[in-house]
Design a protein that fits this description.
Elements: H1 3-9, E1 18-20, E2 30-43, E3 49-61, H2 71-85, E4 92-97, E5 101-108, E6 113-117
Parallel strand pairs: 1-6, 3-4
Antiparallel strand pairs: 2-3, 4-5, 5-6
């Protein structure tokens, strides 16, 4: 989800709710402690220099159980961040504490924002010798040519 998308959604919501993919909700007294832009410049294992930009939201749980972040308040935080930091319209990455700081992509299911687990990947598979994944076929879907078919009693099987 891009920053522009969350800005369009927030005015339509009564509550801001975040949920993990497994169905667990981020406690409703969470805080958004950071909104910023992350610029990552790196070289992949194939020697290609890459630049990535993302908008970072950091969620944090405090002991103030009466705290509830309203959609308008989050929208104001985003607008202030855009103004002060010149944040670009990029994909949102959410940091949320579990056993360690987890990084998540963000989607919306029509009611709540969903934190989607991120995974690592090789960006230069062709350059570092990783074999491409073999195509999987269901044996029942394979057709056999009558010319190459093995006939009972022919000794080919």
């Amino acid at each position: 989800m891009k920053l522009s998308e969350i800005k369009e959604l927030l005015p339509t919501l009564e509550h801001v709710e975040f949920q993990l993919e497994n169905g667990t909700f981020v406690p409703e007294h969470f805080h958004v402690t950071e909104v910023g832009q992350v610029n990552k410049k790196f070289i992949d294992c194939g020697g290609v220099v890459r630049d990535e930009k993302s908008v970072n939201f950091q969620l944090w749980n405090a002991n103030d159980y009466e705290h509830r972040l309203k959609p308008a308040k989050l929208l104001n935080i985003i607008r202030l961040s855009e103004e002060k930091l010149q944040i670009e319209d990029a994909e949102i990455e959410v940091e949320y504490q579990s056993d360690t700081i987890g990084k998540y992509d963000l989607t919306f299911n029509g009611k709540t924002f969903v934190l989607k687990a991120k995974t690592t990947a090789c960006l230069a598979q062709d350059a570092c010798g990783i074999p491409s994944e073999k195509q999987k076929k269901n044996l029942s879907e394979l057709t056999v040519s009558q010319n190459s078919a093995c006939k009972p009693g022919s000794g080919c099987c």
